[in-house]
Amino acid sequence: MDIDYRMESMKRQLELALFKIDAALRFSEPVRTSDLELAKNLLQELFLPSTCVPKEILSTLYCGFPYFYEADLSFSSFEKVVRIRELSAAFQCTVLGTLETKEAPDDQTRQWVEQIEGWTEDVQKNQAHIDEWLNLLDRIHLAYKKSEFLPKALAFHLFKLIGACFDKGPVQESYLNFYARIAKICASEVQNSKSPKWVTGEAQTGLEEKIGFPEEFAGLGQDWEFIVADASRLDEFLKAYTELNLNIEEKFTLMIIIAESYNDLLWEYEVDPGDLEPLRKLLIEDFFIHKEGIRYWIETLDENPDNHEDSFPIALFMKELVRSQELENKWAF
Questions:
Q1: pLDDT over 90 (residue 21)
Q2: Is 137 exposed, middle or buried (0-12, 13-18, 19+ CB in 10 A)?
Q3: Sequence-separated (6 or more) residues with CB below 8 Å from residue 75
Q4: Do 333 and 286 contact (CB within 8 A), yes or no?
Q5: I want to staple 137 with a disulfide (CB 3.0 to 4.6 A). Which of 49, 106, 181, 321 is the partner?
Q6: CA of 3: how far to CAs of 8, 9, 41, 165, 221, in Å?
Q7: Nearest to 117 by CA among 65, 156, 169, 66
Q8: Whole-angstrom Cα distance, residue 57 to residue 187?
Q9: What pLDDT, in 10s, does the model give residues 277-315?
Q10: How many angstroms separate the CA atoms of 248 and 48, rounded?
Q11: How many CA atoms lie within 13 A of 123 on its CB side?
C-alpha cells in the first residue's frame, strides 16, 4: 500500500474516533473502550516513529481534546460530572502517553519546556504571570509558524499544561487568550497545508501569463515544467517566485522549473554552495508546498542506490537538505 495513502487513511480513522469520543463526552454518553483503544493505537503509529509530530494531527487533537469542566453546570447530576471527568482524564493520558518522548530536545526547545514545566507545577500561582505565558507562546509560534511539525517534547508539555489548567476547575476568563495561543501553535497558517502532488493546467496557464515562456512550448502537456526550465533565467524565476502574486499550485509548479534549472546548471558547471542558498531558503520557508516535489527528486536516487555519481545533482541537494532539517527537528519527512 502506498505510504501516503496509508497515512491519510490512519488520519481519517483517527478523526472519526476523536469525533465519537468527543460527541459521547459532550452528551454524557458512554465512551466505547474500542474507540479509545483505536485512537491510542492510531496515535502511537502516527507519532512514535519520529521526534516530531505533524501540526495537522495536533490541531485535530486540540479541537477534539475533550475537556468539559467548563460545562459542569449543564449536567444534571454530580455523578455525570465525575464520569465525564474520569473519561476526559483517561483520554488525556492516552494523548500524553503517545506524545511523551525520551529523546533529548535541542537547547532552545529544552529552555521552553523547562519554563512550561514550571508553570504546570502550580497553575494557580502562575496565573499572575499570564502575560509572560502569552509572550513565550508567541515566540514559539513565530519559531514554528513556517513548519508543518513541532518537536514532540514541546507538544507534550503544551498539552500537559492545558490539562493542568483544567484540572484546577472551571475555565477562567484570563486563560482564553492562552488557549488561543496554543491553538495557533498547533495549527498551520495556510488553509491548504497539503502539498500539491502534480502540475495542473491552471498553474501552467497562470505561469505562462505571469512570467512568459517561448511560444513553441505553449500548449505542451506532460513534462512542460521540465521542458521550460532554463538555467539562464534562474534569477528571473527566483524573483518571480518571491515578488509575483502566485497561488500554491503556481508556486509548486514554478519551484519544479527552478529546481530543474538548477539541475541543468549543476550538470554543466561546478557551482559554489552559496549559489544554492536562494533555493534552500525558499524550500525551507514553503516546505508544506514543496514536500511532494522534494520527495520526487529524492525518489530518483532509489533508481540507482549504489551509484549516486550518475544521479541528478539536484536530487543529492534535496536529500542533504532533508537530512539537515530532520537533524534540527524542523521536518519529519
A1: no
A2: buried
A3: 28, 81, 84
A4: no
A5: 181
A6: 9, 10, 17, 38, 28
A7: 156
A8: 9
A9: 999 888 888 887 888 888 888 888 865 555 555 678 888
A10: 30
A11: 18
Can you tell me the mean pLDDT for 258-276?
A: 85
Whole-angstrom distance, CA of residue 240 vs CA of residue 207? 10
Cα–Cα distance for residue pair 150/328, rounded to 1 Å: 11
Give bridge partners of residue 54 from the DSSP assignment. Answer: 149
What does the alpha-carbon distance between residue 105 and residue 110 come to, in Å, rounded to a whole number?
6
Mean pLDDT (whole number) for 132-148? 85
pLDDT higher than threshold 70 for residue 223: yes
Name every residue whose Cβ is closer than 8 Å to that of residue 5 and which is 6 or more positions away in sequence: none
Backbone dihedral region for residue 222 (phi beyond 0: left; psi -120 to 50: alpha; all else: beta): beta
CA angle 23, 29, 32 (to 5 degrees): 80
For 77, residues 6+ apart whose C-beta sits below 8 A from its C-beta are none
How far does CA 282 lie from the centroid of its chain? 17
Q: What DSSP state is assigned to residue 103?
A: S
Residue type, 55: K
Distance CA 177, CA 174 (A): 7
pLDDT band (50, 70, 90) for residue 192? very low
For the whole prediction, is pTM greater than 0.90? Answer: no
Name the 3-class secondary structure at 329.
coil
Residue 237 contacts residue 281 (beta carbons within 8 Å): no
Contacts of 36 (CB under 8 A, 6+ apart): 21, 90, 91, 94
Report, as an integer, the average pLDDT of 232-237.
92
Q: Give yes or no for a contact between 47 and 53, defined as CB atoms under 8 angstroms apart.
A: yes
Supply the DSSP string of 180-206, one letter for each residue: HHHHHHHS-SSS--SPP-S--HHHHHH
What's the rounded Cα separation, in Å, for the pair 179 and 307?
A: 51
